[in-house]
Every structure is written in C-alpha cells, then in structure tokens.
C-alpha cells in the first residue's frame, strides 16, 4: 500500500484536531435562548420603540457579557407599528417560534390589549414594558401577562392629586383619543375628578387621524375651562396645543404619559412652555443604577434615550433572571416571571395576582424652556414661574417665560 | 363667548379647512380629467410640499435670509421654489408610476398610485432627519405683522391676521388656477383632453404636454397647500398626507369628479359638514368623520356624478 507523503499526513492530522476542538468548544458553548422584543419600530412611535428596543438589547448584552449567565441570550425584535392587527401578527410570530421562551411586549395600549389572548393561547410569557391601560393586566387572569410599568389608574390619581388637591384647579375640559388608551385615561381621570367634586365642563373624543381640532377647541373656548386635559399621544397632543394657542385659549394644558416625549417640546417650542404631564417611574438620574444605565446606553447606541427605555431594560432583566432560575422552558417561565419580586433600575418590581407591578412610581413633569423638568425641581413648583392656568385663575395675563 | 360667536368661529374654522381641502381636491379632479385615474399619491405630494417648505426654510435660515429687508423676497422664494419642486416631482411621479398604468384597468392605476403614496411617505420618514417625529413649522407670516396686535376680535371671535392671510392666499390661488384653466391656451388644451382625449389630439393638442402641465399644476397646488397647512397648524408630520388624500378625493367626488368648481364646492361642503357635526351633534367630535363620509356615501348612492358633475363616472 502506498504511503501518504508526510506533509499530507500532518495536514490531515491538523484538520482532524481542529475539527475535534471545534466540536469540543461547541459542546462547551452556552445554549442560546431567544427572547422577543415587540414594540413600534416603524411608524409614528418608532422613536420610542427603537429606544426601548435598544434598552432591551442592552440588558441582553450585559447578561451575555456578565460571565455569570448560564445561557447565551439573543433578541428577536418584532415590529407592531402601534397597530393592533400588526401587533397580533408579531405576537403570533413570536409565539410560533419554539426557540423564543418569553417576550417583552408593547408600548401602545390598544396593541397590548389585543395580544393578551395570543400570548395566553400559546402559553408564552409577555412582560409589558410601556402600555398603561389597566385592563391589560386587570382585565384578565392570564398568568402569561405581567407588566413592569404602572397603569392609568395610578397615573390619573397622581395627576388629580397634583392639579386639584395641590394646585387648586376646578374647571376641566377633557379631550381624549378614541382608542382604548384614550378612553382609559378619560375613565380614570373623570373618576378622580368626580371623587374630588371638580367640575367637568365638556368631554370630547378625537380620532388619531384627525389633524384639525379648531371646532372642538372653539366650543372649549366658550366654556372657559381652567384646565384642558388630554388623554392621548404626542402627535395629536402637539396639534391640539398648537391650535389652542392659535385660538387664544389661555387654559392650562395637562397631558399624560402619552405626551412625555422630546418631540412634544421640539415640535411646539415656546408653545410647550408650562404644559404638565405624568410619567411612570422617576427621572433617570434619580433611579438607582440609572446614571450607569444611561451611560452604558449612550456608549452603545446613537438614538436618544426615551421615557420608557428603563422599563424595557427592567423587563429584559426580569425575563433573564427567570430564565437563569428555571431554564428556558416556556411553562416554567410563565410561573417564574409571574412570581417576580426583585429590584431593578425602576425600583421594586413585584407582580400582584394580576401580574401588575404594584409598586410603580409616578412623576409629574412640566415643560420648562423646551425640556421636561420633574415638577418638584421646576421653577413652576418653586414659584419663580407661573403656570398659564394659574395666571388665568388669578385673572392676570400670562407672560410666556420660555427661553430656548 | 356666546352661541353666536361659537357659530361664527366654527364657520371660520370650516372655511379655513375648506380652502385646504379644495386645493387638494382640485388636483384630484384635474388628474381624473386628463388621465381618468385616481391619483392617491396626491395626498403625499401635499405632505412632501410641507417638508420641502421646511427644508427651504432651514436652508434660508442658514444663509441668513430669514430677516431684514430681504424677508418678503425670501417668503416669496419659499413658496415659489416649493411649488416648482413639487410640480416637477409631480411630473416625475406621473412619468414613472402613473402614466404607464393609465391605460391598464382602473384597479392597476389605483394600486400603483397607492404604492407610490406609501413609498413617498416612508421615504420622508426614513430619510428626513428624525422623520417619524412631529416637526415644528415656523410661523413665517408672524414677522409681517410684528408691531401690530396680530389679531382682532369681532363679537368674541378671535381673528388672527396671519390666519386671514393664509385664507387669502388659498382663495387667490384657487381663482388664479380657475382663470388659467378657463382663459389660456394650455387651459383650453387641458379642458379639451379632459373632454375627449382623442379628438383633442386630432385637433393638434399635444396630449403628453397637457398631461405634464396638469400634473405640474396639481402637484404644485398640493405643495403650496402643504406650506399653508404648516403655516396654519405650525406642525407637520410624515403621515399627514394619508387622510388628506382620502378627504381631498371625497371632496372631489362630492363636488363632481372632473369639475374644478365642483372640487372647490366639495372641499367646503366636506369641511363644513365636519365642523358642524363636531360642534352640534352630542359627542360629535367622535362622529364628525362618520357624518362627513356618510354624506359622501349619500352622494355616491343618490347623485354619483356629484354636485356639479355632468356625466356618470365609473366608481372606484
């Protein structure tokens, strides 16, 4: 039998060794576990969605780099466009992929409320990171659905405490968008106002496609309210506030978490001055571990950090802590996530019997010189500046103190 | 503010909105007249006009032309270049996406223009800096009224000078366009092609040129309306054209598709229906679109040719 030349034998031996090493290291490599992130990655709310996706990705990257992880995590990002039908498609896609073990889902309430059934039917745990409609958790007993952020109930209670109890406003007009999200805000804010015997002069529903609000604002002007409350999202809020000023309505504009976005200030500039809104959680610098999170985010991504990013980040940590504990098993994860009692950058996270984080923080913000400033730190709270609504109440002309 | 004042204010709001709807509807009706197609990308050309205007404003601000004695000229240039750019873009869209399918079944052209609309919208969202956000549109007309009270009040109704100017520009443009269509040779060509394309060609009308001019006029009007919309609401957003297209088309149908005066009347009918249903039906703000589009359905069923339409059109 002819013998192989020595160089060929050496090359073959080397190849076999390399192949064996590859197999060995593959056996040593950690099992890859997929987790999905669902949010509006395109469309009007893409800025919020992309920032939160990045925050979620940051949580995953930090786990993967920690060295303490038993599993290697991979993000599957899906777009719901803030459209219920697209949300159902995205949720179904995540549920149908057997490699995905849990999901962090949704910024828009009307999407999150629609997909609860999908996650329940497929038995995939979904931790909501942004949607605030109470019914998403309180409207069912599905263990699959949990939520790290607060709901409209806490937000509107806090809202009414500030504007009625502390600031003394008493005459309100309510505008809400006609989605479940807007109607939810109407329901809970109306209840808080009624409990305080505040006067509701008018309630107006508007569609999200509507661009002209001059007719309802003309009616509102004739009613002379102290506060115009808006339960809806930034694009509509911007149009309403801008048209309010055009029609010369001096009332206080009061929003919810839906308008707490940087483009509310940039799109309105001086017209945003003195607008109040609420948001779950606290300013990033006041959160424990918040500055580190913000620094790591800024290092990794170019997109600005948006309001709900810390919640998406915490949702990621909740999911991965559970996977580390019980392994990548959907059924076990549903239980493990539902029993979450932990601390993260948004503070204490404890899910009650409905899967709702029952220890949410709420902070009020006011637009001051084109920035959202926490109410307590603002010149409006210190008395240096006067809110437009308070000027109206006192019968003095409001001078806009905006300085860019 | 009494009931009378509220009604006057709502009427004024309705007229302001009506001018914008009418300007968009005129484009729809012109395109339908010469090519027999419903150009659904027209709403997004309107949006494009607002963004072209915004870009020009930013450019002129950088050049330092947004103040001083040159300001009126800069304002004119913003309007002029915006109309020029959107007009030529209109011709471009027509050449690439509209005319090639104009001889196909109506469904094809509808689909092509809908596709074009989405492409324009998404391109602005993706390629304009921070395109998915609401953008501030500067109050360009405010400096003209600097030093004045900027507004006056009649019976409790606040009238802003800049709003009146926007209304005035809109009305003036409508008058100029109708004069152009009715009194010039090119206008005659447009009317001839709209009436009978083949006969017009046999009489020596250059159909291709007429189609180009029509798309230039229609698109330039949409571009101008985009700026007027930005000036009126002071914010613009990439998806503002979607609803504008549906409403502009509906207004053209109500007025009588193919008839310019019909489109103008349709625009005002649609806007006033919206305004009054929002004001006087209980919880009307939620149902104003239901009422306004209900009116459209009534027209489609009982008078499909619209208020001033003469012939029965194939409905889409």
- Give the mean pLDDT of chain A: 90
Cα-atom radius of gyration of chain A: 25 Å
- Estimate nothing, just give the exact number of structural domains of chain A: 2
Going across the biggest sheet of chain B, name each strand in turn. Answer: 1-4
Using the CA coordinates, give the radius of gyration of chain B: 20 Å
Task: Summarize the main sheet of chain B.
Answer: 2 strands, antiparallel
Span of the ends, CA to CA of chain B: 44 Å
DSSP helix fraction of chain B: over 70%
* pLDDT < 50 stretches of chain B: 312-316
Helix content of chain A: 40-55%
Strand-pairing-aware structural class of chain A = alpha/beta
Strand content of chain A: 15-25%
Written account of the structure:
The complex is a heterodimer of chains A (404) and B (316). Chain A has 2 domains: 31-149 and 284-350, Response regulator (Rossmann fold, 3-Layer(aba) Sandwich), CATH 3.40.50.2300; 153-280 and 369-394, Response regulator (Rossmann fold). In chain A, 46% of the residues lie in helices and 19% in strands. Chain A contains 15 helices and 14 strands. In chain A, the strands form 4 sheets. In chain A, strands 2-1-3-4-5 form a 5-stranded parallel sheet. The longest helix of chain A has 23 residues, at 6-28. The termini of chain A are far apart. Mean pLDDT of chain A is 90; it is low at 23-27. Chain B contains 11 helices and 4 strands. With 316 residues, chain B is mainly α. Chain B has one domain (3-277). In chain B, strands 1-4 form a two-stranded antiparallel sheet. In chain B, strands 2-3 form a two-stranded antiparallel ribbon. Chain A binds chain B through residues 42-47, 178, 203-207, 209-212, 214-216, 218-219, 221-222, 224, 234-235, 238-239, 242-243, 246-248, 263-264, 266-269, 271, and chain B through 1-3, 5-6, 9-10, 13-14, 16-17, 125, 130, 132-136, 151, 158, 160, 163, 232-235, 237, 239-240, 242-243, 274-276, 278-279, 283, 285-286, 288-289.
